């Protein structure tokens, strides 16, 4: 098999640029793990699971570490802007690449709209009377424009966004640690008083917290997509994957432990203001809560920027592999501009639906993407299971990153994903998401298989 770093569009002969530097990739890897789901969505998980949310994040974090290691192994061997979609096509078949790629594209584009709405709500809270849709449109124009111009613009935005997020959460961990130790001026150590009711809602609450924690980890895949547009994609992927473990442990599990130790899990502000803002307000540090609101806004805008980028590259890669409309694969200035525009317009269309059909079409769309990240992880695990044997047999020198304890931990990861699917089926609020995502996945799989058979015939 030929070794390529990025796909080349057959109709133009023009390839994606290599405008992302190693510092961009390093910071994307570092800050990409600190997503909007951590800042915004973790409050509901804490309210359901109480202090046991720390265990929930640790369990789901272990699963994510395994998924990242598997994805890193394949992406270091075959760097591609299609990432797991290209790996699924190589390992399982074109129908699998089609299904994984387009389902993820729908997820990312919808997330662009959701993040735009979330960011607009924060700004309108500061500037009452200004229309939400206008702020969403402004954010969309800024990030769409940045992604249309050059990939280095995406890299620079993410570099500074990530630097701010990493700095803020590091400061939060330091302040929280000092408060817990009782050495922060003006505060008394809470000790273990907030941890006594460890499972307030029993196993049911823990399961809800576990499911919430799983979906907070979305966004880790971006670095394997972005690496294909760097001068040394193998080094970029390998570095990101090898540091994933401590990043997840520190930022996710560490911050959850600080929050539930400082703030009672049933405090209404944990959900109302968000857990990080609630924790800082609880410490009584002047202006800290408002500053964290700025960081949450940055996290939402960062995710919005990253998802416009990721969706456009997934679409571009699919087209180069004959899995989508050729117009989306056109490249100019090293950027797939048609794919950037289409992905942005789809995202803004989701925003319009949220205002126009908030009670039927929009919830249906949200349910449809509810479990896509798990479907993608499943494709990653199966692809790695199949590709590893082939790599060892044909090109062992490509195994720069290796999955731990293969194949045992790959099967452990698959079992963990299956268990989460079962848990989703047993919860009334996640059951609809599971079935809706399942229907979309099945539709794409059938369509992809039909296309595969048609191409094979002629």
Automatic annotation (TrEMBL):
Compartments reported by the entry: Membrane
Membrane topology: Multi-pass membrane protein
Domain Amino acid permease/ SLC12A: 24-436
Gene3D superfamilies listed in its UniProt record: Amino acid/polyamine transporter I
UniProt keyword list: Amino-acid transport, Membrane, Transmembrane, Transmembrane helix, Transport
Pfam families attached to this UniProt entry: AA_permease
Family matches, as InterPro entries: AA-permease/SLC12A_dom, Amino_acid_permease_CS
PANTHER family referenced in this protein's UniProt entry, alphabetically: GABA PERMEASE, GAMMA-AMINOBUTYRIC ACID PERMEASE
Tagged with keyword Transport: yes
The keyword Protease belongs to this UniProt entry's keyword annotation: no
Protein name: Amino acid permease
């Amino acid at each position: 098999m030929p070794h390529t770093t990025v796909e080349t569009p057959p109709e133009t002969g023009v390839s994606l640029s290599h405008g992302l530097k190693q510092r961009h990739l390093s910071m994307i890897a570092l800050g990409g793990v600190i997503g909007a789901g951590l800042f915004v969505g973790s409050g509901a998980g804490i309210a359901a699971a109480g202090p046991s949310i720390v265990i929930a994040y640790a369990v789901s974090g272990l699963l994510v570490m395994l998924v990242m290691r598997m994805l890193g192994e394949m992406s270091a061997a075959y760097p591609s802007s299609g990432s797991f979609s290209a790996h699924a096509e190589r390992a399982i078949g074109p129908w699998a690449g089609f299904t994984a790629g387009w389902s993820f594209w729908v997820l990312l584009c919808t997330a662009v709209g959701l993040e735009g709405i979330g960011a607009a709500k924060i700004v309108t809270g500061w500037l009452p009377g200004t229309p939400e849709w206008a702020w969403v449109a402004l954010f969309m124009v800024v990030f769409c424009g940045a992604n249309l111009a050059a990939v280095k613009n995406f890299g620079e935005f993410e570099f500074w966004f990530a630097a701010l997020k990493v700095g803020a959460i590091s400061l939060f961990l330091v302040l929280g640690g000092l408060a817990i130790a009782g050495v922060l001026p003006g505060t008394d150590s809470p000790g273990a008083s907030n941890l006594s009711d460890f499972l307030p809602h029993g196993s049911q609450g823990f399961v809800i917290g576990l499911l919430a924690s799983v979906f907070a980890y979305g966004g880790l895949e971006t670095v394997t997509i972005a690496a294909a547009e760097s001068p040394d994609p193998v080094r970029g992927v390998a570095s990101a994957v090898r540091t994933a473990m401590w990043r997840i442990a520190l930022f996710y599990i560490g911050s959850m432990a600080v929050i539930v130790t400082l703030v009672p899990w049933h405090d209404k502000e944990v959900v109302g203001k968000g857990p990080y803002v609630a924790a800082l307000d609880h410490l009584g540090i002047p202006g800290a809560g408002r500053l964290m609101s700025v960081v949450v806004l940055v996290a939402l805008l960062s995710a919005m920027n990253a998802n416009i980028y990721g969706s456009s590259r997934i679409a571009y890669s699919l087209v180069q592999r004959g899995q989508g409309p050729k117009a989306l694969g056109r490249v100019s200035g090293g950027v797939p501009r048609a794919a950037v525009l289409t992905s942005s317009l789809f995202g803004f269309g989701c925003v319009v639906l949220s205002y126009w059909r908030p009670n039927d079409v929009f919830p249906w769309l949200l349910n449809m993407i509810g479990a896509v990240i798990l479907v993608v992880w499943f494709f990653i695990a199966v692809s790695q299971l199949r590709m590893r044997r082939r790599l060892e047999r044909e090109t062992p020198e490509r195994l720069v990153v290796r999955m731990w304890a293969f194949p045992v931990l790959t099967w452990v990861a698959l079992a963990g994903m299956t268990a989460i699917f079962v848990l989703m089926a047993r919860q009334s609020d996640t059951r609809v998401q599971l079935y809706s995502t399942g229907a979309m996945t099945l539709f794409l799989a059938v369509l992809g298989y039909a296309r595969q058979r048609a191409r094979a015939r002629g």
